[in-house]
Amino acid sequence: MPLDTSTAFYDVMFDTKKDHQVMNILEEKALEQVRAVLNEPENLNKHIPTLPAMLVKLLETLKNPYSDVFDFVAILEQDPAFAAEVLPVANSARYCKADQEIRSLKRAVSLLGLSGLSKIATTLLMASVIPCKPMYYKMFGRQIWVHSMHCATLCELLAGSHDENEFDGYFIGLIHDIGKIVIFNCLCEALGMVMIDCSPGTKVFKQLMSETSAELSAYIANEWQLPKLYCEALEQQSTKQKTVAPLAKLLNEANTLSEAYLMQVKGMVTEDELDQLFTMFSFHSSSWQQFSELAVEIDASVG
Known about the structure:
Blueprint: H1 8-13, H2 25-39, H3 44-47, H4 53-63, H5 69-77, H6 80-90, H7 105-127, H8 134-159, H9 166-175, H10 178-193, H11 203-223, H12 228-239, H13 246-265, H14 271-280, H15 285-301
Helix pairs in contact: 2-10, 2-11, 4-5, 5-7, 6-7, 7-9, 8-9, 8-10, 8-13, 8-15, 9-13, 10-11, 11-12, 12-13
């Protein structure tokens, strides 16, 4: 039987021993709030995080055939504080293989290329849209962000075999779970409102959360007016269309594999089940080993 990762994120996050119970008050309240966001667009402004203006400019530059690397660097240099955040990441072991310290953005782009610098910049900018209070960030926000970075990394690794641009793959992986941010903000509100000893985790709740978060991600991408190829890929994820664009297919495979990684770390998947997944996606175990090493570095880099 093929490995089912459809609720893997929630299985890892919450108790997996409640599969046959009915939803509790906390879950009902969280779902009620999520549906209110979906059904009443006027509520979106207070639930959907604002897309950083710099990220909009960077994406426009990357998609403009007449722009070059210097235009990209010029945008980053407009915000010295943000540029100062980029350089330490550029000097980290994950990106910098040079003997000398990278002291400027121009030096960074000459060593890492536009692809490397754009990955760093977009990752830092997207990290800023995780709006959770410290306690809830530790409970939910960090896990969402780590999983998003795992998925982005797998999208990048798989992009070549799908004839897709590596940055497009990385970015769609990074944003694919933005709907979960809204979901978990609603859940955090529900946690503050429900004064009984209960926690989320029933099977029906996890299935509804999984389906609803994909729909929300597509909705948010359109609200943010992201480039069409990203919106289409997320829309096809949410509707589970049989005929999908290459970027949507890439995202589906990377997300399934990244969820399988979560399950492997928690001891919730067997080697045989992983092998079946690798066969299904023509994914080599050597690539899995490469990703697993990168995943450990990602985990360590996220506060």
